[in-house]
């Protein structure tokens, strides 16, 4: 894990969260139920939050932040993208249930990343 990978991940996650947020708010608004739209928005929010965190961590990157950065990247992919997959597959009638357990694993990765960040600060 390098500083460049962390910063590239941050910018990609940030840009995609804008795209997915607009897609959800406009293109999917008529296709998704309120519950599905809320879930989709949760994925977008968490993706953007962690894009911002990765920018901060990336600009202050050192080897002590390597594992936290890695967990933020993996966690964001598993958490947010599994939500997108679950919501979209459900909305189009072919729910991918195998993604269900992926979301909490992603959330756990994010949480551990935050704990490692805390330990680094202490």
From TrEMBL:
What's one GO-annotated cellular component?
Answer: plasma membrane
Keywords (A to Z) from UniProt:
Membrane, Transmembrane, Transmembrane helix
Q: Which domain of life is it from?
A: Bacteria
Q: Which Pfam families match?
A: DUF423
Is Transmembrane helix one of the keywords?
Answer: yes
Q: Where in the cell is it found?
A: Membrane
Q: How does it sit in the membrane?
A: Multi-pass membrane protein
InterPro entries this protein is in? DUF423
| Bilayer-crossing regions | 6-25, 46-62, 68-87, 99-119
Asked if the keyword S-adenosyl-L-methionine belongs to this entry, the reply reads no
Q: Principal place where this protein is found? A: membrane
Q: Which PANTHER family match?
A: TRANSMEMBRANE PROTEIN 256
Family listed: Belongs to the UPF0382 family.
Descriptive protein name: Uncharacterized membrane protein YgdD (TMEM256/DUF423 family)
Provide the organism lineage as a comma list: Bacteria, Pseudomonadati, Bacteroidota, Flavobacteriia, Flavobacteriales
């Amino acid at each position: 894990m390098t500083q460049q990978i962390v910063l590239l991940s941050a910018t990609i996650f940030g840009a995609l969260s804008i795209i997915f947020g607009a897609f959800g708010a406009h293109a999917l608004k008529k296709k998704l139920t309120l519950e599905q739209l809320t879930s989709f928005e949760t994925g977008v929010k968490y993706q953007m939050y962690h894009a911002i965190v990765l920018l901060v961590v990336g600009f202050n990157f050192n080897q002590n932040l390597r594992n936290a950065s890695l967990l933020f990247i993996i966690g964001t992919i598993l958490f947010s993208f599994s939500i997108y997959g679950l919501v979209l597959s459900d909305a189009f009638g072919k729910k991918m249930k195998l993604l269900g357990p992926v979301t909490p694993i992603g959330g756990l990765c994010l949480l551990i990343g935050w704990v490692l960040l805390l330990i680094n600060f202490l």
